[in-house]
């Protein structure tokens, strides 16, 4: 495992880390014992950073992380998020009193005294423009409740706006082979500003594993069933904003990247790691097997300049027009 500095912070984190939305909920059936074994497997293989949120299973993923990292709080870094347990459009959700409550509740579930990275969880751009929530986070940082703070964003515009705040230390963005727009402006600007980049939805909600066909059926409580068209939250969080059937079709044109890289998912994750501005990529998981499969990405061959250009051309000519929603 290689480690990369999270922007200008003092955190050096595993280049391949993990997100814990799936083990919390909204990805179909889970098993806590398997989830804990999977977390243990990740840690044993050098992973020292996990991303979560207070709404993942109503705090359940935070509780699982507390169990998995007990006694290793100083060496295993956790990033969590807030605001989606309330009305994301209400100023009250971002008030000092409410944010403090969110923060303290996460600390209790994680059984920690300080959060390594506290992130605003995809707030509306109006909240970011207003900026008062950043002052609240500054206070929590002074009090020692949070080490650093950042923002999980839905769009490049939101990300660029966050970079105007000198205390934002990390951005979490949707970024994968089917969602390359951040490469153009956001990633270079973040590097210039010394802001770390956490790449989420790296496998386009599983599309880039190559295992799906158009006939695949998802469980009712899986967001890939109930949020296909953005019915519950931003459509970009599900298949990167691409219609499922179109995504299945596009993935067939990417199968060539598996050559010499074991399988499609390890190749897709390797492509993200090959972008110099990326600090870490956070695929999700529900099983030990999925963790082991994702970890293979750190050892497969990097992409050549010719391959990178071919993939960029593919995105511009075949993919970009099919992405729905603001991005």
Automatic annotation (TrEMBL):
A Pfam family that the UniProt record links to this protein: Aldo_ket_red
Superkingdom of this protein's organism: Bacteria
Record InterPro entries: AKR (IPR020471), AKR2_Oxidoreductase (IPR053135), NAD(P)_OxRdtase_dom_sf (IPR036812), NADP_OxRdtase_dom (IPR023210)
Start and end residues of each NADP-dependent oxidoreductase domain: 15-313
Protein name as catalogued: Aldo/keto reductase
Organism for this UniProt entry: Alkalicoccobacillus plakortidis
Taxonomy of the source species: Bacteria, Bacillati, Bacillota, Bacilli, Bacillales
């Amino acid at each position: 495992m290689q480690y990369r500095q999270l922007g200008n912070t003092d955190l050096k984190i595993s280049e391949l880390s993990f997100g814990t939305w799936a083990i919390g909920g909204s990805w179909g059936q889970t098993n806590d014992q398997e989830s804990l074994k999977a977390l243990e497997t990740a840690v044993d293989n050098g992973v020292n950073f996990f991303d979560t949120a207070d709404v993942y299973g109503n705090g359940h993923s935070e509780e699982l992380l507390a169990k998995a990292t007990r006694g290793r709080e100083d060496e295993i870094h956790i990033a969590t998020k807030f605001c989606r347990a309330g009305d994301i459009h209400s100023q009250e959700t971002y008030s000092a009193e409410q944010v403090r409550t969110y923060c303290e509740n996460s600390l209790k579930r994680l059984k920690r005294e300080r959060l390594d990275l506290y992130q605003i969880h995809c707030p509306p751009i109006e909240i970011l423009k207003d900026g008062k929530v950043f002052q609240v986070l500054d206070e929590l940082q002074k009090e020692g409740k949070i080490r650093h703070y950042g923002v999980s964003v839905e769009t490049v515009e939101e990300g660029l706006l966050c970079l105007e705040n000198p205390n934002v230390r990390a951005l979490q963005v949707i970024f994968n082979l089917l969602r390359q727009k951040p490469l153009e402006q956001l990633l270079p600007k973040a590097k210039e500003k010394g802001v770390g980049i956490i790449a989420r939805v790296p496998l386009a909600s599983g599309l880039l594993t190559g295992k799906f066909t158009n006939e695949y059926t998802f469980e009712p409580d899986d967001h890939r069933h109930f949020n296909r068209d953005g019915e519950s939250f931003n459509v970009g969080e599900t298949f990167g904003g691409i219609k499922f059937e179109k995504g299945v079709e596009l993935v067939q044109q990417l199968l060539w990247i598996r050559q010499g890289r074991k399988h499609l998912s390890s190749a897709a994750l390797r492509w993200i790691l090959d972008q110099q501005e990326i600090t870490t990529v956070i695929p999700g998981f529900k099983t030990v097997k999925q963790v082991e499969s994702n970890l293979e990405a750190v050892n497969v061959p990097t992409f050549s300049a010719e391959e990178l250009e071919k993939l960029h051309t593919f995105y511009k000519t075949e993919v970009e027009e099919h992405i729905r929603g603001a991005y």
